[in-house]
Design goal:
The chain is an alpha+beta fold. It has 2 domains: about 35 residues, no CATH class; about 150 residues, Nucleoside Triphosphate Pyrophosphohydrolase, CATH 3.90.79.10. About 20% of the residues lie in helices and about 40% in strands. Strands 4, 5, 6, 7, 8, 9 and 10 form a 7-stranded mixed sheet that branches. It has a 3-stranded antiparallel sheet with strand order 1-2-3, with no helix packed on it. A hairpin with an 8-residue loop joins strand 8 and strand 9. The relative contact order is 0.18.
Length: about 190
């Protein structure tokens, strides 16, 4: 199969860029809309000693538009800034959103978030932390209109939430699943 972009016209530029892209695939010309806002990162901090993970409760307007409910429980995440690599971005987002200064990052993967429409790839990380790593309250950046609530959750409860369908954010779902595969003993319910 051969594919080649024959034209691209920007339709909108703001937080995101929307373009109408014409491609030729095996001799057939097709038009697609493409959304581009850059690459992103997501990190799931977890405390080995206390058996908890750190997530954030985030109001999401697209979710509100679709379901009437705004809040999602998510792993800390955000866009990679210009000149920043993914690891630096993951540490910055974790600090802004949860108040955790993360030392070690465990790379999980770099995945397309919605390849049918978006150019975004999300670099996923797990990150152990301890009490000494909590250096701020978190909550996001007021200058960016963020209103996040950091939430520590027992890992066995987080796994139960995932298996019950209560975790609906895809990056968080992937990260919890990766943590279970790498550290299954953390998810055992205490007696």
């Amino acid at each position: 199969m051969t594919a080649e972009i024959t034209s691209s016209v920007r339709a909108y530029k703001g937080y995101t860029t929307l373009s109408r892209v014409t491609v030729e695939i095996d001799g057939t010309e097709l038009c697609h809309e493409v959304e581009d806002h850059g690459d992103a990162v997501a990190v799931l901090p977890y405390d080995l000693h206390r058996g908890v993970g750190m997530l954030v409760r985030v109001p999401r307007v697209p979710v509100l538009t679709r379901t009437g409910e705004a809040l999602l429980l998510e792993a800390p995440a955000g866009l990679v800034e210009a000149g920043e690599d993914a690891e630096v971005g993951a540490r910055r987002e974790a600090l802004e959103e949860t108040g955790l200064r993360l030392q070690t990052l465990e790379f999980v993967g770099r995945l397309w978030s919605s390849p049918g429409i978006s150019t975004e790839r999300v670099s996923l990380y797990l990150a152990p932390y301890g009490a000494a790593d909590r250096v701020d309250a978190g909550g996001g950046l007021a200058s960016e209109g963020e209103r996040l609530a950091p939430v520590e959750i027992d890992l066995w409860q987080l796994w139960k939430m995932l298996t019950n369908g209560e975790i609906s954010d895809m990056k968080t779902y992937c990260l919890v699943t990766a943590l279970v595969r790498r550290h299954a003993y953390l998810f055992e319910k205490p007696e």
